[in-house]
Write a structure and sequence with these properties.
Blueprint lengths: L4 H17 L3 E5 L5 E4 L1 H4 L15 H11 L9 H14 L3 E5 L5 E8 L5 E7 L1 H29 L9 H14 L6 E10 L1 H8 L1 H18 L4 E5 L4 E8 L3 H16 L2 E3 L2 E3 L2 E8 L7 H17 L5 E3 L2 H17 L6 E12 L5 E12 L3 E4 H10 L3 H16 L9 E5 L2 H4 L4 H5 L9 E6 L8 H14 L2 E7 L5 H7 L3 E4 L1 H6 L4 H17 L2 E4 L5 H9 L4 E2 L8 E2 L15
Parallel strand pairs: 11-12, 14-16, 16-17, 17-18, 18-19, 19-20, 20-21
Antiparallel strand pairs: 1-2, 1-5, 3-4, 4-5, 6-8, 6-11, 7-8, 9-10, 13-14, 13-21, 13-22, 14-15
Helix pairs in contact: 3-4, 7-8, 8-9, 12-13
């Protein structure tokens, strides 16, 4: 049953009005590919020949209209191919197509094929949509770029490009959440540059930045495939390794780091010499608190620096206790009051050949009401770390001069005392020494050889020259395999004290004997004497004399004496066998 004619006419009119109201171009083709109905928006696609687009015209005729009237630049020079391609698209083309026309408009075509063979098409101008999408994409790109820049600012070091402390902490937190395989180890190597401040002070911050950049590149070359490298502070870096690492491998990497950083860095043709100290901690299987691993490495780093710098220290539980005590000592040390008392012992220095007493070494100790007596060897690095090493050395020197002033005549021909390298670079050194009445021509100030490299060179050279004019001689302690002849030549010490580990091994190891011979030969070139301290048996005493050492020292041949007992307790040059 059909609709009455007038009803059908009304429906058709309503449909036509609805189609004309559409902003999109609409067309209905029958099975013979002829237009059944279309709206003005579709006809306008063929402007200025839109009047030709009427029901009954075929799809092929419309394509030739485009070709003949130049309505589509894609048809130029390929007219037949263009019409054939458009016919194929009409019959078998996709349901949705998009393209950009000659006027730069973005067009979207929706095509539907009906069961009776008719084809319905709607074309939309989506230029505004595409523009909006491009603008949105541009804004998203800007936001993504801003996020990336914020991430870089928050997590990457601007100077070296390495991940920073924030990234290091985040990485540890991520490992804590994801877990570490039981058959893997985590290794943290914390390193700090020695003497870097001198580069900034002498050459400026541009030089310091250049050196830091070069340091980062050298460290990256040493980074294992399963490791990460961070710059966690001004001159502090951290390695984090995850894998099946042995303690020996981690220690080897630490030594490679120290060796690599010890080579000079070049800035504007000038060699900048610095060093590195490394603290190492390693997990044994899974770690419950990864933050503790980094703290352990930091404790080990403190130990490495306190032991003379340029070293690798591996964390042990005793280190944490030792550091905590050092921190407490440091707090008391900064208080210059009556609770801190300097006490003096003397250790005889003997001729290696005949064991006659040639001098005394002053061995200060620091007594505090809370901690009791703390040896100078332990307290001096603490003081240096706090920047009060010069003050502590002056306090010890004042105690000796006060004791010596009570004596009718000089105690011995030579007096040796270890001082902080900070004293030798002290700006007010000579005004401070002027207050003391010490035996200038018999005094030897000894320091750790390598530490002088990191001081203000001009001030140090000025002070050393002034001390020589006063008759005060310079001695180097801890001379061994790591001491370069260049350092010895640069400062020209008058006394070289062997590293204690070399002296202790000399009767068992050929390598130690070879090092002693080398140091004796270097001393001969410099015109310096060689001292061996801390000797443990008579065989070492005899062997070191044969190897060319000038002076020997140790409880095995002569006891130390407290200053208060010096007049009443006889010093025995040679202990009975």
């Amino acid at each position: 049953m059909g609709f009455p004619r007038d009803v059908s006419r009304n429906i058709f009119n309503d449909l036509s009005a609805a189609l004309e109201a559409l902003p999109a171009a609409f067309v209905l083709y029958d099975a013979d590919e002829k237009i059944v109905i279309c709206n003005d928006a579709y006809r306008r696609e063929y402007r200025p020949f839109e009047d030709l687009v009427q029901p009954g015209i075929s799809h092929t005729e419309l394509q030739w209209l485009k070709v003949n009237e130049g309505l589509d630049s894609n048809a130029i020079g390929r007219e037949d191919d263009f019409v054939r391609d458009e016919q194929i698209r009409h019959r078998t083309g996709p349901e949705v197509e998009e393209w950009q026309d000659d006027h730069g408009r973005h067009i979207r075509l929706l095509r539907a094929r009906l069961p009776d063979g008719n084809v319905v098409g709607m074309r939309f101008d989506i230029t505004d949509l595409r523009v909006a999408q491009e603008e949105l994409k541009a804004r998203n790109d800007d936001l993504e770029h801003a996020r990336a820049e914020l991430f870089k600012l928050a997590n990457l070091d601007e100077l070296t490009g390495l991940p920073n402390r924030r990234a290091a902490n985040a990485n540890l937190q991520e490992l804590a959440l994801t877990g570490v395989d039981a058959n893997e180890n985590l290794v943290v190597l914390q390193l700090d540059l020695d003497g870097f401040k001198r580069v900034n002070d002498e050459l400026g911050h541009d030089a310091g930045d250049s050196v830091l950049t070069q340091v980062a590149k050298r460290l990256e070359q040493l980074l294992p495939d399963d490791g990460m490298l961070f710059r966690i502070g001004g001159d502090e870096f951290q390695f984090l390794l995850q894998g099946q690492h042995k303690a020996t491998e981690a220690l080897s990497l630490g030594n490679q780091i120290v060796q690599s950083i010890s080579a000079p860095f070049i800035y504007q043709g000038r060699a900048c010499e610095i060093g590195a100290s490394v603290g190492l901690s390693i997990s044994k299987g899974a770690v419950s608190d990864l933050d503790d691993l980094a703290k352990q490495a930091d404790v080990a780093l403190y130990k490495a620096k306190r032991s003379g710098r340029g070293q690798v220290a591996v964390f042990s539980k005793d280190m944490a206790t030792e550091r905590e005590k050092d921190l407490q000592i440091g707090r008391f040390l900064q208080k210059s009051d009556s609770s801190n008392v300097i006490e003096l012992d003397f250790q005889p220095i003997l001729a290696a050949k005949d064991h006659s007493i040639l001098g005394l070494e002053v061995l200060p100790s620091w007594r505090n009401l809370q901690f009791g007596s703390v040896g100078y060897g332990r307290i001096l690095p603490i003081a240096e770390g706090l920047g009060v090493g010069a003050r502590l050395s002056l306090d010890a020197l004042a105690s000796f001069c006060e004791w010596n002033a009570t004596r009718a005549e000089p105690t011995t021909p030579a007096v040796m005392m270890k001082v902080s390298e900070q004293l030798l670079a002290h700006q007010e050194l000579f005004s401070a020494l002027a207050a003391y009445d010490f035996p200038q021509n018999g005094m030897i100030f000894t320091v750790d050889a390598e530490k002088l490299r990191y001081l203000d060179g001009d001030r140090l050279a000025w002070n050393l020259e002034g001390l020589r004019d006063m008759g005060v001689r310079l001695g180097f302690e801890g001379v061994g395999a790591r001491t370069t002849f260049g350092v010895l030549q640069a400062f020209h010490p008058q006394s070289l004290t062997l590293s204690r580990d070399i002296a202790a091994a000399v009767d068992d190891h050929q390598n130690a004997q070879g090092l002693v011979r080398l140091i004796v030969a270097q001393a001969a070139v410099l015109g310096a004497n060689v001292v061996a301290k801390g000797l443990q048996n008579r065989a070492q005493v005899a062997l070191l004399a044969d190897l060319g050492c000038d002076y020997v020292q140790g409880d095995v041949i002569a006891d130390r004496v407290a200053a208060r007992d010096y007049d009443t307790q006889q010093i025995k040059p040679v202990r009975e066998a």
